Automatic annotation (TrEMBL), chain A:
The keyword ATP-binding does not apply. This is Probable sugar-binding periplasmic protein. GO terms for cellular component: periplasmic space. Part of a binding-protein-dependent transport system for a sugar. Belongs to the bacterial solute-binding protein 1 family. The lineage of its organism: Bacteria, Pseudomonadati, Pseudomonadota, Alphaproteobacteria, Rhodospirillales. It comes from Aestuariispira insulae.
Automatic annotation (TrEMBL), chain B:
This is Carbohydrate ABC transporter membrane protein 1 (CUT1 family). The chain crosses the membrane at residues 23-45, 81-103, 115-135, 164-189, 210-235, 273-293. GO terms for biological process: transmembrane transport. Its main location: membrane. Gene3D superfamilies: MetI-like (1.10.3720.10). InterPro entries: ABC_transporter_permease, MetI-like, MetI-like_sf. The keyword S-adenosyl-L-methionine does not apply. One of its GO terms (cellular component) is plasma membrane. It is found in: Cell membrane. It is a multi-pass membrane protein. It comes from the Bacteria. Belongs to the binding-protein-dependent transport system permease family.
Amino acid sequence: MSSFKRNSTLKALLLGGVVLGCASAAQAQPTAEVLHYWTSGGEAKAVKALKEDFEANGGKWVDAPVAGGGGDAQNAVLRSRVLSGDAPAAVQIKGPNIRNWAEAGALADLDAIGKEEGWDDILPPLLQDIVKFDGHYVAVPVNIHRVDWIWANPEVLAKVGADVPTTWAEFNETAEKLKAAGITPLAHGGQPWQDATIFETVVLGIGGADFFNKAFVDRDLDTLRSDTMKKVFDQMRIIRGFVDDDFSGRDWNLATAMVMNGKAGMQIMGDWAKGEFLAAGKKPGVDFVCAPTPSEGGYILNSDSFAMFDVKGDDNKSGQALLAKLILGEKFQETFNVYKGSIPARMGVAKAKFDDCAIKSMNDLEAASSKGTLVGSAAHEISTAGAVRGAIMDVVTEHFNSDMSSDDAVNKLAEAIELAL
Amino acid sequence: MDTNNQNAVKGVGDWFRWHLSKFVVAPSFLMILFFVYGFILWTGYMSFTKSKMLPIYNFEGILQYVKLWKQPTWLASFENLFVFGSLFIAVAIAFGCILAIFLDQKIRGEGALRTIYLYPMAISFIVTGTAWKWILNPGSGIEKLVQSFGFENFEFDWLVDPDYAVYTLVIAAVWQASGFVMALFLAALRGVDGEIIKAAQLDGASISRIYMVIILPTLRPVFLSSFVILTHMAIKSFDLVVALTGGGPGNASWLPANFMFEMTFRRNQIGQGAASAMIMLATVLAIIVPYLYSELREKKHG
């Protein structure tokens, strides 16, 4: 009796499963589950734009946001999902982490859609390197952020009769003047990634693009220990004198606010800082100025991207392809990047809707890309994987917060990077 | 037939009743066996592999441990653990003990005071950390307050000084835990036999002597249990660092738990993270095992 009952229950369950299976197969609606950590303010708005675009094209969007900035929480979720064989279609991953997942064999091949859409022609070569593995597209870039920006308050600079500096010597001079006038020259938050952000702009400025790549991409130990690197740390020591006493642990947006309300003259930060100015109703060129940090036409690139995981089922596969196509489409690139404060990851997007800083960023990007002075950010995990980036941050932040000499710093940097490999 | 059956049923019922406690405990026992001890073993194995982003199961020997002890950030966090741990434990026990003795003087409003002192324990470390961050920040807290009273030269900038940041962790942690230690001591003080104290008073012993020679020695078990509780609180401290100093300035106030999290979850170095976790476990064992041993031995003898 009881065994019969169990049997029939099992049958019912199986039957139900079959019916459900048929139902979903009959629909075959392109479906994509998107795992991301864009949960706040402008970012949430930007992701909503993608969702609406996707649904307007007949797709079914399964939203899987994981709150917690920086994506640590997302990373944990992703690992367990992939290990249990249930990977989401698209995941917000950047830089060399894409390569790690590709090496683990977890990513899908997007070459077909890439060819159809001509990605080889519209993506800057540096970005292609990031989103390709073994010559195949495995991810799609969403945007480009420029890291090497100075955000300045023109009113404050005018008080000491200075302009936005174009060389590091000029930067130091202007900063001294501001200091003498009782104004904090550089608004900065003492968090390792912010220290590293300033550090990489100084590396690019003093060493140049080739030096930058040799140090962070090739991780050449002689370059890391070179006199040029010592000069970089010397400049970092000088910069340490330009921040206020309470900088420890301050969030970057609070530092931006210091520039906004005239407490500080400048901030070195990526163009996500622009969003803070715009949100406060400030006008670029009038209430705040954006200028690249001193370098020979260099450009430090940071880019968010979606890695496409190997999914099963036609509905999931077609959803993934549709999503990839839409992300690099002109329409989405425009709306998304206006919201996010970044610039399009592809070329040939109309510039009309973007502000002056973004247009300058686009022009500089093209120039740097053709001149070969375009580099991937080390502080934001584009040219370096997590472990190397962490090693750089450890040394830079320790140097910045102590009286370590530049000689010690370069040795520690080389040792730390060697250990992290 | 019937009686036999009944007996059998009764036998089953008895057997069931007899083993009921084991059935009730079994699920949680199995879960702990798997989720705690199973994962300790797994972490231990991971620490002998080259695992980076995903677990790799090839055995590589003690490579990760060699690397670990070369990492300046690990050495700094481990040193911080000893500075933070020993100060935190010593100060919290001293404070808790003194508070308990004061409260034990049959004062008015004891119930209210006890609640006030115990209350910080109910707050999470994140809240404690954030509040103390504001209090200790030179730009917004104590330093600014005292300076605004006219003492322009007053300085209290431990939070932003790499050499002193770890002491701010001690301040916040002591504030949180000493009320709890006080409660432990208070309960023990109430259990001290009043007759002995009266006898000592008749013999003309002073109050301080009574406490030092008679009362405190009887509190030895409480000292030990607060020591053990505070030790594991110190070793697993993580959220306090995140909220109060963010590990900074620089990496000056990292504790081993922060190192473990950073390596495992941010830098894709599961092997390194696992190795540091095993060292933390070994540290706990090194303190707890002798304690358990001495406790158990005493019971046998007693």
